[in-house]
Structure formats: C-alpha cells, structure tokens
Design goal:
Helix content: 40-55%
Largest sheet: 4 strands, antiparallel
Low-confidence stretches: 1-59
Shape: globular
Strand content: 15-25%
Structural class: alpha+beta
Length: 484
C-alpha cells in the first residue's frame, strides 16, 4: 500500500511474472546440444524370473539453448496454458513465436550478466515477497495460492518465483540499457511521419480531456491524536518492555501488503518506490531504532530498522489511518455541491475553482486537468479507459459538471469526493501532424527503439552460444536464431 503505483491485478501478475510459463535450467560446464523435443526410451525392466517388458516414456526435451539458459518443451506448453488461463486468444499464436519470445528473454538475461548489469538477490526476494503477498490477498491464503499453482510447498514455490523474477529483472534491465538513452528529435519525427503514405497513416480513436476538482474528507484532530498516541504506545512497549515489533505489526498495522509478515520490507534503497517522506525517515534511523510517528499521504507510521546493509535497509513498519467520520464525508460532499452551484452560475471558471479549492496537488495547478497514466498526456481514448472511470464520465455532455462522486484512493489514502467535467473532445480521425504530434513522436521513438533492439539482437546472437532443437529449426523466427 505504500508503494507508488502498486496496484497489481491478479491476472496481470500472472502475465508479468510468467509464473507458470518460465523455467530456468543452468547448463553444466560442458555445453550440450539440444535433444529432440520428444525422446522415446525403451526401458528394459527385469525382475528375477519376471519376463522382460518394455514401456515407452515421454521425456521433456530441450527446445533451445541460449548461453547459460535452457528452454524446455514444457516451457512452451506452460506459456500456452498461462495465456489461456488469462482469457487471451491463442488462435494466432504459434509455438515458434512463443519460443522466439522465450529465447529473446534469455538472451537479454544472459548478456546482462556478461555486461555486469546485475540484480541483487535482496531486490529479487523483495519483489517476490510483494507478489506473494498480493496473491495471498487476492485468493485468501497461501494454501490457496499453492493449490492454484499446483505447488507442494511454499519453499519450492518461492525458489521457482525467485528464478523467474531474476531472469525477468535481468532481461528488463538489459532492455532498458539498450533503449534507455535513445531520444528522438523533431526532425526525426517529421521524417518518420512524412514517410507514411496518406492511406496508411494511423487512425486515432475518439478521445477526451477531463478535469476534476477533489475534496478529501479529513479526519478530526481528535482522531489524528488518537492514532499518534497509539503509535507512541507501541513504540514505548517495544523499546521499554521488549515487545515484538513484528507481532505488533501483525496485530495493528493497516498496511495489507506488509501486515501478514510483521510489517517487513526487505532491500529498501533510496531508489525504491516508496514515498519520499517514508524514505527520509527510514534512512535517518540507526539499526535497531524505532522512529517517532510521522505522516505520509497514506496515514501515520512508525518504522523499525531491522538490518542495514550498505545502502540497503530491511525494515518493519506499522501504518495506522485515522478514522473519517460520516460528518467529515458529508462536509466534503457539501463543499463540492456548493462549488458546483457557483460554477453553474458562472461565478468562476472550472480552472479557477480547481486552483483555489481542489485538494489534489497533482491537478489543481493545471486547471484540474487529468493526465492519462498510460500515455502521460491529457487525452483519454474511450476504448482504453478503465471501466469504473468510463462509467463516471460516459453520460457527461460537453461543459456539463457531474454531481459529487465518492471515491476511495486505491493507494489507501483518504476517502474523497470529486466533480468531473469534459473539457475537450476529439473524434476518431486519421493522424494529423500538428494535432497529434505527441502521439506521432511516441510512434517514431518506438520505431527507433525497435530498430536499436533488432540491431542489438543480430549482433549478440552472433556472439552467443545459441542452439535450436531439430523440431524448431524450420520456424520462421523474426531473429536469426538458426545460425547458418
């Protein structure tokens, strides 16, 4: 809950981690050539006077070898299972295309190690721990998670998750190192667009710009003090009476992500995605020290530093959120009602009202204009809107202002009310250089990055041990995996 943008949907987690799609097998010192994808062995079973019998056994073969990584036939099968479990259509997806993607991921990871682009075990473990806690929250218990993934015990599940995350994080860091510093100039954007024939220019769907004014329901001073007093009491009990901070976190913390594990977060660095106030306090403490209560956008905290390892911290924390009364909620709603009436009477503009009355710092200085988290610009394409948000604005007419809408902050912050207004509409249209420059620039940058990746792939496939099993050598790969 402390993490910025931590919202992880269950099915998205399956796709990102590839938990049931990827396996990683280290090769021995001597390289081995890939075997046929399916080997049939005749096992001669002899027992005393029992007549010899033969049994055909289907063994898991090797599809490809990339550097130090082996891709098994079962990896391809599991990838299909993963996609189908998420409801994705696999009609146009072939075994060859899936194998090509698995090989790309392993080439990135292999080269990352060669280039000393490393991922610490602590970082991998911390990522896995957050994912596990998210899964447990989704399905209810670790037992149900293990049953869903058909795993016998938690330890083996954690070990497999570690391998998958390590490979994925190495791959991501390698890709970022390839394209991270690529930039696009206005002239390159112009040339990119001019090369597209008019009848082949992209069509952008109907879009709109939306502004909002937010009023947060604030807890009373009495409720805030009650939370601070409780945190001070916990701090004293830990410091003076030797009580367990971990047990206290399990009993009292309101952070669902860390509560089940005693408030623990491993491997925190200055770059970790925690809010600034949280990191500032954490990195000001000594090992074994408990902080004073402090406030962030999520509520009030105390932190206990369990271990310091250079620039990394293992810490535990307890989060408490002051209760918000019905009276406070009603007060926020009534205030927005009053603002809405004055807007309808043209006493001030929506932008002026946002600047003077909105509690949302991210939008108030921009006239209340929302930014699309997917594109970072101000336009929202109707067909790509998050369903709840779409339902809130779908019936709004131009220049109409919504009634106050109750919304709980998905990050676990204060409950709030908001009013919405559609400030601009853009009909579906063929790309226009002047009007759609931002989108065209992104397309041009994506093409430039894609070309850089292709060049990188071609170069490193030549320099890396790659061997593709006989059953896949006829695949029409997008990269030259089958070397001449």
């Amino acid at each position: 809950m402390l993490m910025i943008n931590k919202r992880i949907l269950f099915l998205t987690f399956l796709m990102v981690t590839g938990l049931i799609t990827a396996q990683e097998t280290e090769l021995p010192d001597t390289q081995v050539e890939p075997q046929e994808s399916v080997m049939e062995a005749s096992l001669d079973i002899k027992k005393d006077t029992v007549k010899s019998t033969f049994k055909k056994v289907k063994l898991d073969g090797i599809s490809a070898v990339i550097g130090d990584y082996v891709i098994l036939e079962s990896d391809i099968e599991k990838t299909f299972i993963d996609l189908k479990s998420q409801g994705a259509s696999t009609e146009d997806i072939t075994r060859c295309s899936l194998l090509g993607k698995l090989m790309e991921d392993r080439l990135y990871a292999h080269q990352a190690v060669q280039d000393s682009i490393l991922v610490s075990d602590d970082e991998v473990n911390a990522t896995g721990e957050r994912q596990l806690q998210s899964l447990v929250q989704q399905v209810g218990s670790m037992e149900k998670v293990l049953k869903f993934y058909k795993k016998e015990d938690e330890q083996s599940f954690r070990e497999e998750l570690f391998k998958i995350n390590k490979l994925r994080m190495l791959s991501e860091k390698m890709q970022q190192s390839i394209v991270g510093e690529i930039e696009i100039t206005p002239e390159e954007v112009r040339q990119f667009f001019s090369k597209i024939p008019e009848n082949e220019r992209p069509v952008f769907g109907a879009e709109m710009e939306i502004s909002q004014i937010v009023k947060e329901a604030k807890p009373s001073e009495k409720e805030i003090q009650k939370v601070i007093d409780k945190l001070n009491g916990i701090k004293s009990d830990v410091e003076d009476n030797g009580s367990s901070f971990s047990v206290k976190a399990i009993l009292y913390s309101q952070d669902p992500g860390s509560k089940p594990k005693g408030g623990l977060y491993n491997g925190i660095t200055r770059q970790s995605g925690f809010v600034k106030e949280f990191k500032d306090v954490a990195f000001s403490l000594k090992e074994g020290e408990v902080s004073e209560p402090f406030e962030t956008q999520f509520g009030y905290h105390i932190i206990y530093i369990e271990k310091i390892r250079g620039q990394e911290l293992d810490l535990r924390h307890i989060l408490l959120q002051p209760e918000i009364s019905e009276e406070s909620l009603l007060e926020a709603k009534n205030e927005l009602d009053s603002i809405r009436v004055k807007l309808l009477n043209n006493e001030f503009t929506f932008a002026e009202a946002a600047l003077n009355f909105s509690d949302e710092k991210e939008t108030k200085f921009d006239g209340g204009l929302l930014r699309n988290p997917a594109t970072l610009d101000s336009r929202f394409e109707l067909t790509k809107m998050e369903p709840t948000f779409y339902n809130q604005i779908r019936n709004l007419k131009d220049n109409e202002i919504s009634n106050p809408i109750l919304e709980k902050d998905p990050r676990g912050g204060a409950t709030k009310y908001k009013i919405l207004k559609i400030t601009n509409r853009y009909d579906e249209h063929t790309a226009d250089y002047a009007k759609d420059y931002t989108k065209i620039k992104q397309l041009a940058l994506t093409e430039k990055q894609f070309n850089a990746i292709k060049e990188w792939m071609a170069e490193h496939i030549k320099d890396t041990y790659v061997s593709v099993g006989e059953t896949h050598k006829e695949c029409d790969f997008s990269n030259n995996w089958v070397k001449e």
